[in-house]
Amino acid sequence: METKTPAIELKHVTKTYKLGGETLNALDNVSLVAQAGEFIAITGPSGSGKSTLANIIGGLDKPTSGDVIVDGQDLSHVRDRALSDYRNHHIGFVFQSFNLQGSNTALENVIMPLVFAKMRGKQRKARALECLQAVGLGDRVNHKPSQLSGGQRQRVAIARALAVKPSIIIADEPTGNLDSARGAEIMKLLQDLNHQGITLLIITHDQTIARLAHRMVSIHDGKLVEHRG
Amino acid sequence: MRFIDYIVTALRNIWRQKLRSLLTIFAVVIGATSVTIMLALVTGAKTFFRSQVEANGMLQQVAVSQKSDIKDFNDASHSGGNCDSCTKLTDAIITKIKTVPHVVEVARQMRVGAFEAVSFSGKKYTLEQVYATDANGVIHNNILAGHDLQPSDKEGVAVFTSDYADKFGFKGNYNGLIGKQISLQSRSFYSGVGAVVKQPVPCNGPCDNKLQQPPTVLTATIVGIMDTSTTSTAVRVPVDWAIGMNQERHYEFTKADQIAQEAACKNARGACNSTQHMSLITTNFVDTNGYDQLVVKADNAKNAKQVAADIKKFNVGAADAESMINSQLAIFNVVGLVLGGIGGIALAVAAIGVVNTMVMAILERTREIGVMRAVGARRSTVSRLFTFEASLLGFWGGVFGVGVGYGLTRIANVFINKQLASQSVQAHDIITLPIWLILTVIAVTTMIGMLAGLYPAHRAAKLDPVEALHYE
Ligand SMILES: Nc1ncnc2c1ncn2[C@@H]1O[C@H](COP(=O)(O)OP(=O)(O)OP(=O)(O)O)[C@@H](O)[C@H]1O
Ligand SMILES: [Mg+2]
Predict the structure, then answer these.
(1) Residue B44 and residue B120 share a domain
(2) Are residues B279 and B157 part of one domain?
(3) DSSP-assigned beta bridge partners for residue A204
(4) Where are the alpha helices (DSSP H) in B136-205?
(5) If you measure from the C-alpha of residue A25 to the centroid of ligand 1, how many angstroms do you get, rounded to a whole number?
(6) Is the predicted ipTM greater than 0.85, yes or no?
(7) Domain A8-228 carries which CATH code?
């Protein structure tokens, strides 16, 4: 039996917001280990801290205290430059509201992370086309987001997350803006990626989606509760 | 992010907000245009001035005046006349100056103040100045028609400035004036060469024997027309003639006359009423006051300064052209500074426009910045992207500003050429846009754009990615 190296390791992570005189623990002493290639679903009521957790793992946010170790790299003390490069090389984000650039075509949206990765023009175009084909949008590369359906837009977002060949994809309610059929297609796509070895972290309210995961954790008031997969 | 990607992305972002970018650039264009034109005017004027000075051989010249504290040519030409305690510029001084090393030649210069009008073919014109300079190659006059005065000319000839020729109706046909006769009409006190000085009616006891002279008319043949680059509304005559014009002559009952009369009366009986004899007394203005100014030619422009220093030892004033050129150029510098200041204000306003545009752009693109950060853009990447964008606004403003400025200087040259031609100055297209000026203006506007972009770029870079992603 093979021993997997932990892809993500959270040790006593706390995130505190100070609003006026009050302090709010968005995350309260959270510890979590995820193996490489794992598919974890994070559930919990609104405002419980799911997005906060995802953002900290994705390197968009920093914990107030505790350690975050992803792919052997401790994120809690690195500077912006290293953290940005980490996001660029290791993480693919998929958001509920797609967050595509309206003035750019699907292709240009997928190219964007590759530009920050300093890839050259021809190579990055080839890579972006490859990713768009992988999500079934090979015939829509020059469409702008406004000329695409909701499901297609989320596919473009997934292609964009894929472009830099990340080891982890973090999807924060990726199906939240889609009907159930479109949502199922997106989940199928993400599961395929997971089968190719990418660690998948999905935040969802939807229990049918959560049940697809290897493992399910839920958060209540910033505290993590582990469920068996 | 690679350099080329910064440029391409910034250009695309500028293009995305065409109207707003255009208006922002337009403000920069106004500033850049005014700075371009002003710099072009000033450098053009400087170059033109210097070339004129060089063409006139002025760099080799040293001006000498009676007053010893002159600083430049202008001082020298305005300090002639009454200075009783000064060393007079006499022939003796000229002889001394000619012994100074590197001195090639000395030209005498003097004004004649006794003439008030010039008549030509029945018409009378006021006469601003009659003056004389030696025609010995020291002072270069730009002759447009005919020829300059010759060293052998003594009297009866004159060179007119072209503005007179224009007044006489010979614009464009200066050759038509050559050989024509004109009359110089004196003021009423004139008693110099050509004047019929009358003997006063004899009187006993104290009485005024200096009679008012009727105006004298001298005739001159026009031998040449010169341009107005060194002087205007002037008539130049040979020095010898001017010396004669500056004579003062009158009859006086002298001691000799008295002795002669007394001798004649000895043999007379009763009251002696023999005709009183008077003598004509001639006073040469040059002998009493010296020349107004001397112009010394050095063998080389480099030696002019030393020559001036050596001549000063004779207790007269001396200055080379360099100081005059410098003081004239200083005026251009001041003009340039003032005009440049106006352009600077326009650019400052444009800079505020760039700041405003960029702050607006950041508000609009907050979410986009969040996405960029999420997919791996560093703070520095975001910052640079906005700095590039602002710099490009400045860059385009500079490019178009120089373009518009170029067009306007071309138009200005058309008018200036006309003006120069009407003054018969042989120069054209004097306002030029040297490459260094073009590059400087574009570099400066780009720099201003960059500086204006620093604050907005800093704001964009310090946005929190999570908050930016949720910005509504
Ligand atoms: N920048 C902030 N300043 C103050 N409080 C914040 C900030 N961001 C999040 N919070 C608070 O932290 C808590 C956790 O927020 P988070 O976005 O992680 O919730 P969530 O579980 O993702 O909710 P939802 O399911 O609605 O997306 C919330 O109570 C929220 O109000
Ligand atoms: Mg959330």
Answers:
(1) no
(2) yes
(3) none
(4) 162-167
(5) 10
(6) yes
(7) 3.40.50.300
